[in-house]
Specification:
The chain is mostly beta strands. The protein contains one helix and seven strands, in the order E-E-H-E-E-E-E-E. It has one domain: SH3 type barrels. The termini are far apart.
């Protein structure tokens, strides 16, 4: 849910405490600045940002208020030994 106040939008969909439950899990994210959903492993959750690791190793950093929706994938890949 997005509320607009003085031309500044704040997304109250999720908080960093909610996202911390998904650390080191692969999730699908719907972000405001992406046309399609992306899949990535949650590497870090800060006060107002989330750091995702893509399959190819690249990192994506996004503000938490950019998250429109997310969900954990059913089959989590096994950790490398």
């Amino acid at each position: 849910m997005t509320y607009k106040n003085n031309k500044v939008s704040t997304n109250n969909f999720c908080s960093n405490e909610q996202l911390e439950k998904f650390l080191d899990k692969v999730c699908v994210f719907d972000l405001t600045f992406m046309e399609r959903s992306i899949t990535g492993r949650v590497k870090e959750v800060g006060k107002d940002f989330i750091l995702l690791e893509m399959r190819d190793g690249r990192l994506l950093c996004a503000r938490i208020d950019c998250v429109l929706g997310f969900g954990m994938v059913k089959n989590q890949p096994a950790e490398a030994v």
